[in-house]
Amino acid sequence: MQTPHTSSRQTADLCAPCLPLQEIDELFKIFRVLGTPSEATWPGVSVLPDYKDIFPYWAPRPLQELVPSLDPLGIDVLAQMLRCVSFSRSCM
Hints:
globular; mainly alpha
């Protein structure tokens, strides 16, 4: 990504998020889309070291609403790649 006209610092700045977020902010953004995980959707989640049963609850949002330009196959691929439970996530 570095060009003859950019320094390594400039390259690092280009790769950094626009607004630095704390981990909890990032998690909540994910939960707002995928839904807050529970034992029903992610068996064993409640025993993870940083899991808190006081996390706000968000229901999963339909991906078609978030990415209306994707056809059903694209929605299916996206849904498989965005699963929270890593062992059920598709790696394409």
